[in-house]
Amino acid sequence: MKSIQIGKTDTFQKRQIAILGSTGSIGTQALQVIEEHSDLYEVYALTAHNNVGLLIEQARRFQPDVVVIANEAHYTTLRDTLADLPIKVYAGADALNEVVEAEPIDMVLASMVGYAGLRPTMNAIRAGKAIALANKETLVVAGELVTQLAIEHRVPILPVDSEHSAIFQCLAGEGHNPIEKILLTASGGPFRTWSMEQLQHATREQALKHPNWDMGAKITIDSASMMNKGFEVIEAKWLFDVAPEQIDVVVHPQSVIHSMVQFADGSIKAQLGTPDMRLPIQYAFSYPQRLSLSSQRLDFSTLSSLTFEQPDPVRFRNLALSFEALKHGGNMPCILNAANEVCVSAFLKERIGFLQMSKVIEQTMEHTTFIPTPTYEDYVATDTAARRIAEEMIAKNG
Ligand code: MG
Fold it and tell me: What's the angle, vertex CA 17, arms to CA 14 and CA 20, rounded to 5?
């Protein structure tokens, strides 16, 4: 482990962080946080799926011990370009799974997109690494397995999703006070006020314009369809050990309140702030401490009103499907996720319409074999089967 000397006797160990998905929106902001607090944190490993150009740039700047590119086609480019630096270079899914086990790593930021996050996150937990979790699909697909594994290995899972970070912040100092209700706020996305007729013709470009948050394509489409909020309901269930009935979604278009917790005495705590993902990333890194952050502050003299609405499960069917999947349990959320990944990819390629996504997801949930208590292998098989069935449904509907 690398260390720096403070005074004559104390040795302060910088926290070694591995970032899975370093070229994405969360990954790049995490690097900003590390740069701003380079006295506390150091990058041990960076991994990316495809964006080799940015990965090279990041490797030069942050000098990690290891870099991994998942897409093996980029391996030689990466190795040759970094040949002058003492950085170990690997490629492929297996390398990605193994890198998280490296002894010096203290914390793994899981910020890759989708189902691909599951295996490396589970490996990191088994290796005893603290997890900063941005990849919500990990808990959507296999929440029971992952949280159980974390308990077994006494590994904390620190939420990076802004809503869950807000809930986590509201729970600070509450000891064992039980949660009565979680009020999960949602911006409502770009189609909050659209009619069914308008949604029918919603385009890829319109869906990619989120009013408050600047994020990657997959999560932006999920936000427009409110699948993101459905996933967050499932994520909240596993992170905070509550029943589906204890989670209410509240549409709050200004995205100032990032979520709230209601306690046994009716008291509600909320966390507020400007929409800036660096805060939840940083809080996961530094918990229970708070570090300085040069973000924009909320200004109540210009903040004229905060408004709240009920979500509409008819126009945003994905939200209702998520609650259904959660209540079914077993591999149903895994089916929901696999079908959604196929649908989002098809929608981005303009192979299906916006509303068709929910239809295909619902059909996939009906047609994929239900397993009440799945093993890891069952989840892998379910993911494959559900993807195939979703593809068939898209072919039929299209
Ligand atoms: Mg979120």
Answer: 170
For residues 136 and 158, give the distance between their C-alpha atoms in angstroms, rounded to a whole number. 12
Burial class (CB in 10 A: 0-12, 13-18, 19+), 346: buried
Please report, to the nearest 10 degrees, the dihedral formed by the alpha carbons of residues 220, 225, 230, 235 taken in order. -10
Q: Is the pTM of this model over 0.85?
A: yes
The neighbour count for residue 52, using CB atoms within 10 Å, is 20
| pLDDT averaged per 10 residues, the chain (length 398) | 49 92 97 98 97 98 98 98 98 96 98 92 98 96 97 98 98 96 96 97 93 83 96 98 97 97 98 96 97 94 94 96 97 98 96 97 98 97 98 88
Distance CA 108, CA 99 (A): 10
State the angle between helix axes of 376-397 and 332-348 in degrees (0 to 180), rounded to the nearest 10. 40
Q: Give the integer Cα–Cα distance in Å for 27 and 352.
A: 30
Question: What pLDDT is stored for residue 216 in this prediction?
Answer: 84
Residue 1: the pLDDT is 46
Q: Could you tell me the distance, in angstroms and rounded to a whole number, from the CA of residue 163 to the centre of ligand 1? A: 5
Distance in Å, CA 115 to ligand 1 centroid: 17
Nearest Cα residue to 117 out of 235, 8, 5, 247:
235
Give the distance (Å) from ligand 1 centre to CA of residue 232: 7
CA of 258 from ligand 1 middle (Å) equals 8
| Distance from the alpha carbon of residue 186 to the mean position of ligand 1, in angstroms | 8
Angle at 14 between CA 13 and CA 17, to 5 degrees: 130
132 CA → ligand 1 middle, Å: 14
| Residue-level pLDDT at 212 | 78
- Please, are residues 166 and 258 in contact by the beta-carbon 8 Å criterion? yes
d(CA 110, CA 150): 14
Take residue 287 and report the two structure tokens written for it. 């918990």
The pLDDT score that the predictor gives to residue 8 is: 46
Task: State both tokens at 293.
Answer: 């952050």
